[in-house]
Design goal:
The structure holds two protein chains of two kinds.
Chain A lengths: L49 H13 L21 H7 L2 H4 L11 H18 L3 E3 L5 H18 L8 E5 L5 H8 L3 E5 L1 E2 L2 E2 L1 H7 L4 E7 L11 H10 L3 E6 L11 H4 L3 E5 L16 E5 L1 H4 L6 E5 L2 E5 L16 H37 L15 E4 L10 H10 L6 E2 L8 E4 L7 H15 L3 H6 L11 H7 L16
Parallel strand pairs in A: 2-3, 2-6, 6-7, 7-8
Antiparallel strand pairs in A: 1-9, 4-5, 8-9, 10-11, 12-14, 13-14
Chain B lengths: L8 H10 L29 H12 L9 E2 L12 H7 L2 H4 L11 H18 L3 E2 L6 H15 L4 E5 L4 H11 L5 E5 L10 H8 L4 E8 L13 H5 L4 E5 L17 E5 L15 E5 L11 E6 L5 E6 L5 H4 L12 H38 L4 E2 L10 E6 L4 H10 L2 E2 L2 E2 L14 E5 L6 H16 L6
Parallel strand pairs in B: 1-13, 3-4, 3-5, 5-6, 6-7
Antiparallel strand pairs in B: 2-8, 7-8, 9-10, 11-12, 12-15, 14-15
Classes of the chains: A alpha/beta, B alpha/beta.
């Protein structure tokens, strides 16, 4: 389709006030505050009318790509439609105007929603102990590894359990979280896109604290050897960790508990459709077996009769991981999504997401090689390597797709595939969009190298110079040259 | 069930047919039998009207603070939000967008984040800010980790008066590092930090960082902090600061802070029972490469036009993996947008005026509570802005606040760590805050309810 993103020459907000409309005066003294602590210079920020503010940010919004405008075939990101009803409910005064330190008697509805969502997610994950406290997926990973740490400390094995193993296809957050939690991250190689079970068997030992796995993995493949993997990790006393980024593929088909995982994180902003907000907020979920559940952050939401309360009496708990109880505003949205879909709806989600991936994978497989087996789950990989002969990189293809009105797929990940493109069309995308993307992809692959190098053409700006950004490091208004340089 | 999955069964069957399958079950042929599920047991789906009615019924069991005389505060601030803020946040080009990894298609969010970074640089007085972290407490945790990267040592000093949740979060950020967190004592009369003690410890050679807060956990502004950096020398100083307070106070960067973090929810976001929140983070330029989180930089496009992009990404987990400066991926972009839209809508003068108004109200409140037998308000003899700590000398703080609640007054929150067995050297104290929702009428109501609440509590021994 034709796609033309708005292209305003919208100046930064501080240039909208014109030439010093008002000379800023330092704030007047506040009684009792020592003069030495008083701000000597007023905050240098523009005084604008409401219309000026609204128009500025409305224009910026029009220079931004969102799901409501265009599809996002971003692998591992599950960019599905964010239902409007969830936005409406989260903005109710009875949801938004709740302070986390209000007495529990005044937040019974919020606690009920959290409790019901946790109860439902225990069923979805097959793990009985659930907490909605993490602010995001990686935050959940970190908390889960701290739980694993505390568990081994209680067993007197912490000094020995120094390693967290993970496949070479793991999300970057996995090794980063492992490192932050004080473990050494060690990669296990893949064979044909899945964990090399023999290599895993050779790698596990008394030093293994945990094995972190995404299933289906980032190649879009279901790790069918999951039974052997679980036995291997448990055989040496290690914990099996489930990265729930790709849960959208397996709702009602299998779950982490059934597969033998001990602890999991989920991303409500993926599977349960809460909006990504331009990079956040997300909402994470921790789910664990009874054994590890004792270490979940405090407080826990508990039900007593018809009443709900926050339980701090969890002696093994790792404590707090953020202020307040998770991202309630997002949890509420996710609960509305879960209620709407119900059992059959959740199953339909995974069926359709997997169908979309396999249908599109087959179509695009005629254009670029698919590295591994072709039965995939919710996403699939392509390799842009053949285009290199013409001097075209995967990045060029990604930028060219923007011109067609599709967000670029995830690129250069996982690293075991040369010039990787990782494509995921969640269940909310129609056949029309799948076919449209396939046609756009076909045009892009067959475009001239010159035009591909030059892409994108239809976005608010042309190809952005990231090298210049890293070299000059202009990170705020303070760093910008006083008079904007003329375009070269 | 809502119509969120497109196409009819016939179209889905056709898609299946095109890939040579006959039954959707075949799509899951690679999932072994032994791990397959029966039913999950999550109930049947519902129509939108039923979802709305069900959730509204649950929400009706909440009593939002808007129905009380509200004096709740701390790091999370109930504020009035101008309608223009939500109007912008509801632009779905913003809220349904992904992380701006494709800068050409994401200039709107990138520019807004650059403006947000600029505003936090201006308020904090430091060189550079990132594009947000989860909340103020996790931002403090990241500050601890950054301090460790830029200075040798295995001890970190934090105020004993820091809110218990933040202490606990810091302990968790430190859990994997083998370092020790030690608490800086405070003066029991003024609540001020023991600067001499801090100086002595910081100079002992094994301290890699000191963290302080403005206002502090008691709501007070501690003048001694202004001289702290000159006494601790090269040891990195982190300041946890409230953005509204920084509209009237000297920026921490001006008095030696190396890292300034804070909770930004009060600028543009509802408390929403504690989330989503907004972690603010700024540091010195020379430490940027060791700092966490996404950062937006200004650059040019192929035509030489001004443009923005994420930069310094080689610090981040998707590139550096286990050697990344942090594991953070998803952050709080939309709240960063809310922060800058709120601040610009209210304007710098409006923000400073708001802090002044709230500070005056806090003084009125302290005056109204001061004469009440059974309370000490403020508990500490020290300057404050819009909040302060109250001592309860008859009965417990929790019991007192509960009796206020029955009179439709949310008087504040207890500062004690609620975990059984926790050490609470402060005794019966709570934090109270002036808010835009609490004028003279509400203050009078508070004082009256407080008198009644304490009337039949036996005096302390």
């Amino acid at each position: 389709m034709t796609f033309r993103q708005a292209r305003y020459d919208e100046p930064p907000v501080w240039q909208l006030a014109g030439a010093a409309r008002r000379a800023p005066e330092p704030p007047a003294p506040i009684p009792g505050i020592p003069d030495r602590f008083r701000r000597r210079r007023a905050v240098d920020w523009p005084e604008l009318s409401e219309l000026e503010v609204v128009r500025h940010y409305t224009r910026l919004s029009q220079m931004n790509f969102g799901i409501d405008s265009m599809p996002y075939p971003l692998g591992s990101c599950t960019m599905k439609y964010n239902p409007k009803v969830s936005e409406q409910l989260a903005r109710r005064d009875a949801a938004a105007s709740l302070h986390p330190y209000q007495p529990v008697e005044t937040v019974q509805g919020a606690l009920e929603i959290l409790w019901r969502l946790e109860t439902a997610l225990a069923k979805v994950t097959g793990l009985p102990e659930v907490s909605l406290q993490p602010a995001a997926g990686a935050h959940g990973e970190y908390a889960a590894l701290l739980m694993v740490r505390a568990y081994f400390r209680d067993r007197g094995e912490l000094a020995q359990r120094t390693e967290v193993l993970l496949p070479d296809t793991a999300h970057g957050t996995n090794p980063a979280s492992a490192h932050m939690a004080g473990f050494t991250a060690r990669e296990i190689p893949s064979v044909d896109g899945c964990v090399d079970v023999a290599a895993l068997k050779a790698a596990v030992n008394e030093h293994t604290a945990a094995f972190m796995l995404t299933n289906p993995n980032t190649a879009g493949l279901f790790e069918s050897e999951i039974g052997a993997i679980a036995e291997t990790v448990h055989g040496v006393g290690g914990m099996l960790y489930y990265d729930g980024a790709n849960l959208n593929a397996i709702l009602g088909v299998t779950n982490p508990g059934r597969m033998g995982f001990d602890v999991a994180h989920l991303n409500l902003h993926k599977t349960f459709a809460t909006p990504h907000g331009g990079g956040g907020p997300g909402a994470g979920v921790l789910a664990a077996t009874e054994t590890l559940g004792a270490y979940l952050p405090v407080p826990r939401v508990v039900k007593q009769g018809r009443a709900f309360r926050l339980d701090y009496d969890r002696p093994k708990s790792i404590g707090k991981i953020k202020t307040g109880y998770g991202n309630f505003g997002l949890d509420l949205r996710a609960y509305a999504f879960l209620l709407s879909h119900g059992e059959e709806g959740l199953r339909h989600i995974s069926r359709r997401a997997v169908l979309n991936a396999n249908y599109l994978g087959k179509k695009l497989g005629h254009l670029l090689p698919r590295p591994f087996r072709t039965l995939v789950k919710h996403e699939f990989l392509l390799s842009g390597a053949p285009l290199k002969a013409n001097g075209v990189r995967t990045l060029d293809l990604a930028k060219r797709l923007l011109d067609e009105g599709y967000h670029a797929p995830t690129v250069y990940f996982p690293s075991l595939v040369e010039e990787a493109l990782m494509i995921e069309f969640p269940e909310t995308e129609s056949r029309r969009e799948l076919d449209g993307f396939a046609e756009a992809f076909d045009r892009a692959v067959h475009d001239t190298p010159e035009h591909l190098h030059d892409a994108p053409h239809s976005t608010s700006v042309r190809r952005v110079d990231e090298v210049l950004a890293a070299r000059q490091l202009h990170l705020s208004r303070k760093d910008l040259p006083a008079t904007p340089a003329q375009p070269s | 069930m809502a119509r969120w999955i497109p196409d009819d069964a016939e179209t889905e069957a056709a898609l299946l047919h095109e890939i040579g399958l006959h039954d959707a079950e075949e799509l899951f042929a690679d999932v072994p039998r032994r791990v397959r599920l029966g039913r999950m047991g999550v109930g049947a789906g519902r129509e939108e009207i039923d979802v709305v009615r069900t959730i509204d019924k649950m929400l009706a069991r909440n009593r939002p603070y808007t129905g009380f005389a509200n004096f709740l505060g701390g790091r999370i601030a109930p504020r009035f939000l101008p309608a223009a803020v939500d109007a912008i946040l509801l632009r779905s080009e913003f809220y349904t967008s992904y992380t701006p990894y494709q800068p050409e298609a994401s200039q709107g969010m990138l520019q807004a984040l650059f403006e947000f970074q600029s505003l936090w640089v201006e308020l904090s007085g430091l060189d550079a800010a990132n594009a947000s972290l989860y909340d103020g407490a996790t931002a403090a945790g990241e500050a601890l980790l950054l301090s460790r990267r830029i200075h040798e040592g295995d001890r970190y000093l934090v105020p004993a008066s820091l809110p218990w949740e933040e202490k606990s979060v810091l302990a968790n950020y430190a859990a994997g590092t083998g370092i020790r967190i030690q608490e800086i004592p405070f003066d029991p009369v003024t609540g001020r930090l023991d600067v001499d003690w801090t100086k002595r410890e910081a100079r002992s050679g094994d301290v890699f960082g000191v963290l302080v807060d403005v206002p502090n956990g008691f709501g007070h502004v501690d003048e001694g902090l202004l001289d702290l950096k000159s006494t601790i020398g090269a040891v990195p100083l982190t300041v946890v600061a409230d953005p509204l307070a920084l509209t009237v106070l000297e920026p921490p960067g001006e008095w030696g802070a190396d890292i300034v973090v804070g909770e930004g929810q009060g600028f543009g976001a509802s408390p929403s029972f504690g989330g989503p929140l907004l972690g603010l983070f700024a540091c010195r330029r020379e430490h940027l490469r060791f700092s966490p989180g996404r950062i937006v930089g200004a650059t040019r496009d192929a035509d030489g036009r001004p443009a923005f992009t994420l930069t310094l990404q080689t610090r981040e987990q998707h590139i550096r993996r286990s050697r990344a400066t942090s594991n953070i991926c998803t952050n709080q972009s939309l709240l960063a947008l809310a922060f800058v839209v709120y601040a610009t809508t209210v304007g710098p003068k409006g923000l400073a005026d708001l802090e002044r108004t709230l500070s005056e109200r806090a003084r009125t409140l302290a005056g109204a509570l001061a004469g009440i037998d059974g309370l000490k308000a403020p508990r500490f003899d020290s300057p404050y802005l819009h909040e302060f700590t109250v001592g309860v000398t008859r009965g417990t703080a929790a019991g007192f606040l509960d009796r206020l609640r029955r009179k439709k007054v949310l008087g504040g929150h207890p500062l004690a760590d609620p975990r059984p067995g926790a050490v609470n050297p402060l005794g019966e104290v709570y934090l109270t805050a002036a808010t835009e929702f609490s004028g003279d009428k509400e203050i009078a109501k508070y004082a009256k309810a407080a008198r009644a609440a304490l009337a039949h509590v036996p005096g302390a021994a």
